[in-house]
Amino acid sequence: MAIVSVTPDRYSYLDFKSFFTTPVKVRLSRAAQKNIIQSHARLKVLLNKGTRIYGVNTGFGNLSKISISREDQMQLQLNLVRSHAAGVGKPLDKGLTRLVMFLKLLTFAKGISGVRLEVARQIIRFLNHDILPVIPRKGSVGASGDLAPLAHVALSLIGEGEALFRDRVVPTLLALKEVGIEPLSLQPKEGLSLINGTQVSTALAVKALLSADMLLKTADLAGALSVEATLSSRDVFIAAIHQLKCHPGQQQSARNIWKILEGSEIVLSHKDCNRVQDPYSIRCIPHVHGSSRDVFAAARVMIDHEINSVSDNPLIMNTGEVYSSGHFHAEPVAQALDMLAIAMSEIGAISERRIHLFMKGIDNKIPPFLAHNPGLESGYMVAQVTAAALASENKSLAHPASVDSIPTSAGHEDFVSMAPWAGRKVLRIIENVTFILAIEILIAVNSIMAYHKRLKPGHGTRLIIDSLKKDVHFTQGDRPLSKDIGIVSEMIRNGKIINTVQKYLELE
Predict the structure, then answer these.
(1) pLDDT tens digit string along 347-395?
(2) Which terminus, N or C, of the chain has the lesser number of Cβ atoms within 10 Å?
(3) CATH number for the domain running over 204-502
(4) Strands 2-6, 24-28: parallel, antiparallel or unpaired by DSSP?
(5) pLDDT of residue 295 exceeding 70
(6) Is pLDDT at 164 greater than 80 in this prediction?
(7) Residue 499 CB contacts under 8 Å (≥ 6 apart), including other chains
């Protein structure tokens, strides 16, 4: 079980891989504790002076002009959490929920939120016992914080709502009693600090980046397999050619494919053929894959910035001043995810076009649809149809969420980011692309094994072929393909394919 420290230091999306695979143990660093304690002390000074602070001694949103008496301020926070827990839909998965809570701790660790140390400790207790609040995935517009989903987290912290505990959804209070945790009693500003923030949007973005990183490398492997299987030219991936373009992702992708195909007798077998140029889906792999890599790199920077940002409101500054801003607005996350959605959709789209090449047959070497007895057999005809359906779905899903806005809170919150939707749909795109690449890999490997079996494949492609042969039964004649597609897609998802190659070849 991973042990993760909450500190004011800088984090990367890569630091959170373990959250999606296993429960985590969390501890609060001394620096984080000091920041939280000092921030809460500043808030108490302000309240004792009677300073007017939004959401602490005023109402919320369009009701912010209404003053709240001192004796009602704790009830205000409780009412806020209860009323805002209005999410709908299936719950977020375990990994996302763990990360949402941890990201909330990172904001508190900056010492700007004004909450007591006890609030952070309560979140840590939940994480260390893997008590995971049930967070409905729909209901946030990504501004004023991810209010509804984060309110469900806060609801569990105070012993209300439901939680996933020991693989059962139970009333949170029951889970707390089983491990001896007392419900949290909210003090001024604490409910507001718990529900304000971009933590749900950012957690979705972290999961998308981790998956997309894997797919970008896998896409080069799939592309190299198709280059080899379709008897296409390796020469178009020579490094000197791609140094003429200044895009680093393009150069990386070209180097990867050149390296994967090193030593291929299949490539050498058609070196003097009459084909002058290969289709764009082959020849322009570095240009398309590389562009998606560069967009990924830009999105990664934006999300890493958000991970390390304060997204609370109001802000209790180190100087003792208090400011209301819009740091809870997830526009950077939304735009980063929209860019990533387009980039990953293009990876799937060009992969589907490479699959299409096989359907037409390759010269006189590979029959249409890879059918051994065309007409009587359909081969991979409908596997390509499945890939086409997924690629088409991605075109709709890639429409940017961030260009949409719908006013909320009686128009007080008049421009919103829609970042959570941007996150959920990019994850759907990534899932679709995983299946498309699985289909391409399955078809390309079958082509090499059935029609180029007398020639040695490249160093990298051979590793993929050998790995697949252990899990997929390649047989002649028609057979149901769904299971094989599922097996290969899971090998992509869990990193088995890319890790098999990277044991012997260093890919970028």
Answers:
(1) 999 999 999 999 999 888 899 999 988 889 999 999 999 999 999 999 9
(2) N
(3) 1.20.200.10
(4) parallel
(5) yes
(6) yes
(7) none
Cα–Cα distance list, 250 to 84, 198, 429 (Å): 46, 32, 22
Cβ atoms within 10 Å of 391's Cβ, excluding its own: 22
The architecture that CATH gives domain 2-197 is Orthogonal Bundle (1.10)
Q: Count other Cβ atoms within 10 Å, centred on residue 9.
A: 12
What is the pairing mode between strands 322-323 and 132-133? Answer: unpaired
Looking at the DSSP assignment, which residues form a beta bridge with residue 67?
58
54 labelled catalytic: yes
Six-digit token pair at 191? 């409910």
Residue 304: other Cβ atoms inside 10 A? 21
Q: Which amino acid does the sequence have at 392?
A: S
Residue at token pair 């801003």: 325
Could you write out the three-class secondary structure of 164-197?
EECCEEEEHHHHHHHHCCCCCCCCCCHHHHHHCC
What are the structural domain ranges in the chain? 2-197, 204-502
Average pLDDT over residues 51-65: 83
The first and second tokens of residue 216, run together, are 């970008």
Q: CA–CA separation, 388 vs 378, rounded Å?
A: 17
472 and 484 Cβ atoms separated by less than 8 Å: yes
pLDDT, tens only, 408-425: 988 878 899 999 999 999
Residue with tokens 């590389």: 290
Place of tokens 């990953």: 344
Token code pair at residue 400? 């940017």
The C-alpha atoms of residue 245 and residue 251 are separated, in whole angstroms, by: 8
d(CA 3, CA 23): 9
- Would you call 47 helix, strand, or coil by DSSP? helix
Catalytic annotation, pick one of 11, 13, 54, 504: 54
Q: What pLDDT, in 10s, does the model give residues 114-125? A: 999 999 999 999
Q: Three-state DSSP class for 88?
A: strand
Residue 392 half-sphere exposure, CB side, CA atoms within 13 Å? Answer: 6
Joined together, the tokens standing for residue 390 give 């997924």
Tokens of 37: 């304690």
